[in-house]
Amino acid sequence: MSIAVVTKTIRARSALWDDATFRRDLQLANKAEAQAMRRDYQRCTRTWAHEVTFVQITTSRGPDLIVIVGTDDPIFRYVNDGTRVRRALMSPDFEAKTRPGSLDSRPGQGGVVFISRDLELPGIEARDFTGQITRQHKGPYKRRIEQAMKRARSRAARK
Q: Which domain holds residue 56?
């Protein structure tokens, strides 16, 4: 399974948890982050003929807020994680739709000529979409949660 996870631990006074607005802000922040991460995953595969389904989960465990987005699609995993060996012979005009270090998917060209277990061609270079998405969303997610905490503290101080 390929999953991107962002988390934020909240070490706050229990009074914050009594604030319904704060809890709603956290739910909205989790949902917004999950949707943004899912859009980035879809961006990686938008030109693929093979459709990949991504699942998003938002949860909290004690003081930890967790956003998980991922897929168990084997083709996505081959591209994301890379392979040691390629068993497919590609056409001479083959051009990959994705590149390592980029979340963009281009049209590409060419394709598979045939597949054989006897082939041992150089493998697929890992694109690491999951790592890129996790790194890209970690900071903004933490800032969004910290802003919700500041708003809750200021509301508590006014009471």
A: 2-83+125-158
